[in-house]
Amino acid sequence: MGRKNAKKVRGRSNEGAGTTYKGTLDVTRSGMGFVIVPDMKVDIIIRPGDFNTALHGDTVLVRIKNNAGGRRLQGEIYEVVNRKRVEFVGHIEISKDFAFFVPEMDKPIPDFYIPLSSIGDAKDKDRVVARLVKWEPGGKKPLGEIIGVLDPENTNDAA
What we know:
- The protein contains no helices and twelve strands.
- The chain has strands spanning 8-9, 12-13, 20-27, 33-36, 44-46, 59-68, 72-82, 87-94, 99-103, 112-114, 127-134, 143-149.
- By secondary structure, it is an all-beta fold.
- It has two domains: 8-82, CATH 2.40.50.140; 87-154, CATH 2.40.50.700.
């Protein structure tokens, strides 16, 4: 009875839609995400537009949107419970009014907006360590601050 009466949306079942889970976001190199929920046999697919400020490794709350073709659950992250990481290595690009921090990661991560008041002693193109300060839901870029400038001679150990 339950499956027979499940509504279909463009060939997809919305059975389970609205159900929430807590898990860990795993982001592939291509940018697709999967929330791994303990004791669940399948991961929940998360499209990049549904990360809602979550980054690879974060503990998140996810809401099921629909069943993607009957094989996998598709969801959207609605809350970051715990950040796995808040400090990142990358380089800084400084302009007249602001700066951007560009992380050096094997997983996709957005550039950070850095106010000029938060760049410390960093110079344009320096390899630096940045801290994610905040990222408002719906915000395009996280706000960060530079917490260290890496010595160009000894940068192999920083990553």
